[in-house]
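hey so i finally got around to running the thing on that chain from the lab meeting. sorry it took forever, my laptop kept dying and i had to restart like 3 times. anyway pasting the input first so we r on the same page abt which one it is
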Amino acid sequence: MRLNQYIAHHSKYSRREADKLIAEGKVSIHKEVILDFSYQVDSKTKVYLNGKPLREQEQYSVIAYHKPKGEIVSKKDDRGRRVIYDSLPKRFAHFMPVGRLDFASEGLLLLSDSAKVVRTLMESGLERVYLIKLSGMIKDCVFDAMESGLSLEDASAGGHSKSKIKAMDFAPFAGYTCIKNTPKYSKIKVIITEGKNRELRRFFAHFGLEVLDLKRIAYGFVHLNNLPCQKVRFLERKEYNKLHIFLKEKDMDFASSDFA
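ok and heres what got predicted. didnt touch it at all, straight out
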């Protein structure tokens, strides 16, 4: 990664502050002052700030990827379809995805080189925000189910044809905003706190509504924003700070449960 990015990941400084430190000649590598903030470094590079080595503070990395439609969140596909690792730079080949986005869905996908981070994020109640286009009008009964929750003995509609999952419970949505609602099609932004198999497609299919487009725009404190399709970025310092706090709170919850 670039030098300024490395400093932001391994210190209290933001990327902009790192640029200033580099310009002031306070950063060195192999006893040589580096003035180029885009200088490329890796995990083995010893970076010095004011003559003192930057110690490894991040024991893991997390990236945000804008998954397009037509890619499988998997290492390989037995049907020969494109997988996310065909688009991701090779240096992220060992990163693991936080949950899934199905073949026909797009948007924000988080990946990490830490199995613990992936598991904690997946099992958390962090809010997932989606923009959805539906095949018809959203009736009052649908809004009621979003607010109250839903339990289905047969939730196979909307699921994959080979899925063995049938019954499914849907928790009340954390929030929703209806953007457009017409007999031809509707657009809605929804917030959920679970990540079950094709959960949203199954939910709306129960009411005869087909999901025409589904795009995840946020996962907890990480937002897709203007990240181009099929592009990747590391988390920003403020996102890492929120992730540290989140993981620390989860560790404390786990520790306290051991004594309960």
